[in-house]
Amino acid sequence: MVASIDTEAIDALGDERLDWRFKAIPASLHGRTVAEVRELRPPLDDFGTPLLTLDEGALDHNVRAMARWADDAGVSLAPHGKTTMAPQLWRRQLDAGAWGLTVANLPQLRVALAFGVTRVMVANALLDPAGLAWLGAELEERPELEFVSWADSVRSVELMDEALRKARVQRRVGVCVEIGGPHGRTGVRDDGDARAIADAVRAAPTLRLVGLAGYEGALAHDASDEGRAAVDAYLRRMANLFGGLEYETDEPIVTAGGSSFFDQVADVLGGVDGRVVLRSGAYIVHDDGFYKDISPFSRGAADTALRSAMHGWARAVSRPEPELALLDAGKRDLPFDEGLPGPQFVRGKGPDPVEKASVTAVNDQHAFLVGGSVEVGDVVRLGLSHPCTALDKWTLLPVVDDADAEHPTVIDLIRTWF
């Protein structure tokens, strides 16, 4: 059974009024509701810079493509909500058949439950006593809520159990043992220790063992033969360990899969006796940088490529040297950790002015554009890399009908909670 979300809560976002809180929203729209802006369909030209937009066609394409691929591969999808922290986009993913939603921590879990998501996985150990007490109350009040957390040590199991017993939580909390790898992130390194953690979960009166979890993306940062071999070895270890544990559920889960190697997850884990759950999150937005290069869809895992749904828009505000223009978008506005923004075209002038240009650095509020023939006042569209550090800089994102059009139209506004 797939998870659901509170559609009335999502629809109510249309009642929010626009004002100075939302950067790049023109003053002409202040006082209007989001629903009214949808009806108005204002031109993107009216919006200020710097700006980040989402493309409707790309969002729809990416959601459909991933849902179809997961279905064909026989795996379930619990997309990582941390990428967007946008319940409106979560709704699209759940409506397309996602089994559940993944989040990374307690604040993100609060957002998911505030919008009524009925199946949530925290891809982390939830050890905060106050947070566990709150979760326990939510589980008591919401019988439809299914929740899973992770643990990678006996000590974390003891802390979870202690906090839940102190809060007198009646429903047992589902736990996956998290498996890690050398020089990776969290996750137990030794299989014997993993079995001890599983035993501790089963012995805890407030917990129940429901599966095995891991993140292969921490072990490889490119799609080289060496990187893919490291991922395969890790996943085979997970598969072997999964079959040797005794679970407290009729359908145990084994969960892995970021947005870089989910094809290998399906190949290696697909034969286990349980539900394989992918947690890929970046696919809905995709990008023109890191994920464009490393996504399985770009490496032939599907007959269609994902499309970047996010673009930056920045205005040239200075040309102090012949080969240098300064744009009004920087680290506070656009992602830069997995590659700098790349100029794609100038509004109204096409790609020629930026054909030989590149962004070589970004400051807090400026991007350094070197080369090309951009003039002061020109608006440059930028291709971006890494959606996880793009959307977190914006509380309200315009969705355009076609980002490639000469004059895109804004057809929606997406609210985020980071």
From TrEMBL:
InterPro entries: Ala_racemase_N, D-amino_acid_metab_enzyme, D-ser_dehydrat-like_dom, D-ser_dehydrat-like_sf, PLP-binding_barrel. Residues 309-401 form the D-serine dehydratase-like domain. It holds the Pfam family D-ser_dehydrat. The keyword Ion transport does not apply. The keyword Transmembrane helix does not apply. Belongs to the DSD1 family. This is Amino acid deaminase. It comes from Actinomadura meridiana.
